[in-house]
Amino acid sequence: MKKAILFSILLLVIFTSCQKTEIETSPDFQLQFSTDSIIFDTIFSGIGSTTKHLKIYNPSDKDVQISQIYLAKGDQSKYRINIDGRASDFESNITIKGKDSMYVFVEVHINTNQDALLEQDSIVFMTNGNWQDIKLLAWGQDVHMINGEIIQSTTWANDKPYLVYNSMLVDTNQILIIDAGTKIYFHRGSRMYVAGTLEINGTFDQPVVFQGDRLEQVYSDVPGQWEGIWLMNGSKHNSVNWAEIKNAIIGIQVDTLADINVPTLSIHDSKIEHMSFAGIYAQGTTIFATNCLVSDCGFYNLALTIGGSYDFYHCTLANYWQNSYRNTPSLVLNNYYTYQNTVIIRDLIHAGFYNCLIYGDRENEVFIDKYSGQGSLEYEFDHCLLKYTSDAALDINKLNSCIVNKDPLFLDKDKYLFNIDTLSPAIDKALRAKVDLFPAFLNFDLENNSRILDSAPDIGAYEWVKK
């Protein structure tokens, strides 16, 4: 019996092995593709692209043999492909089983000093005498390459973008001036260190942009793509006007108090968005800020820690973080740190919030972290709209004419549009005297709308304007 079973299995194996695989030979046969073209948005000169993929389908029940797959420009192509696991610009006699598929991976490398700014090619497929192709298209962008450099006093002009690779340092007592409209891109893991002075001179029409070097639309609001800007020990007199800082770990980290008479950081009319940790992270320093939006941060929009002195006028801190669970408030104030198991008190001399809007999707968006009642932690909220609970440890005597726990009715928080809508409780509830105090900074909002044309300004960085 056992011999009979073994004999039957042997016959089945022999029969199966003798069967020939059917090959699709029809001259009308067409491969199917996941796309008809592969497009790379912007490739920086000298820096390779991301890798994209193409899926090739065999719609037939029979196996199909692709006689040739190759780049049309051959070894002159700026593209590189990987065909079913093989890095090659030409392969022949590739078989795809019936109803199966395979992948081709594509990348491109452009040097704009030698190559065209628009680089075109195609992947060609020859099957049963049929010719099919997938278009390849990439735009090159010439850049100033900043590769781990130590910067002496200089001006970055808006002639072409800057790409920071392996970080950079503005040296001690040196000034980096950045002209309006300049774009600065950072490769993953890179940071701008400032031991000297940073002067950003953007305008409403031409803001200065800091962001990661992944320019595909899908990365437009992805945090953590680069490290951020760090104003280090000894850095002083930094000014930021009309800047957009996006997609880093920390937007601006301020760790220095080099001049008690002049703020370490003066920042106006700027946006800091999509940070995996914090928008502004300050430690024992001084900041003067007006008309700023800080939003979408994984831990804190604004962390003012280890003491210092701070003033914020007409700023919006809005946090509806969606990348993970956030259990921290948008705003935290703190007056101590721990070193080798010893608590060190550092007085927070002053933190003033005037006509500011602080709101998000947590029940408590403010936290006052004063160490066991010790040291000084002085703050005030004047004509603000804010969201907090008893967990905030907030002294209500520090609030003057504030609106508490009322939805500001942002225009569209899911699209990061933090203008206020028609029925917002923030409309006309700001204090005009604060605007008059700094007319050069506060007469106009973050969209250049006047705050002084109606009965009173609105709370936050945006003035509601009737359409």
Topology:
Blueprint: H1 2-18, E1 32-33, E2 37-44, E3 52-57, E4 64-71, E5 79-83, E6 86-87, E7 90-96, E8 101-108, E9 118-127, E10 130-141, E11 144-147, E12 150-151, E13 154-156, E14 162-165, E15 168-170, E16 175-178, E17 183-186, E18 191-194, E19 197-201, E20 208-212, E21 226-231, E22 238-241, E23 243-246, E24 248-254, E25 265-268, E26 271-275, E27 278-290, E28 293-297, E29 300-313, E30 316-319, E31 331-334, E32 336-339, E33 342-345, E34 348-354, E35 357-360, E36 366-369, E37 377-382, E38 385-386, E39 399-400, E40 403-404, E41 410-412, E42 417-420, H2 432-437, H3 439-442
Parallel strand pairs: 2-10, 11-14, 12-15, 13-16, 14-17, 15-18, 16-19, 17-20, 18-21, 19-22, 20-23, 21-24, 22-25, 23-26, 24-27, 25-27, 26-28, 27-29, 28-30, 29-31, 29-34, 30-35, 31-36, 34-37, 35-38, 37-39, 38-40
Antiparallel strand pairs: 1-3, 3-8, 4-7, 4-9, 5-6, 5-8, 9-10, 32-33, 41-42
What would the keywords be for this entry?
11-stranded parallel beta sheet; 467 residues; 6% helix; Pectate Lyase C-like; Immunoglobulin-like; mainly beta; 47% strand
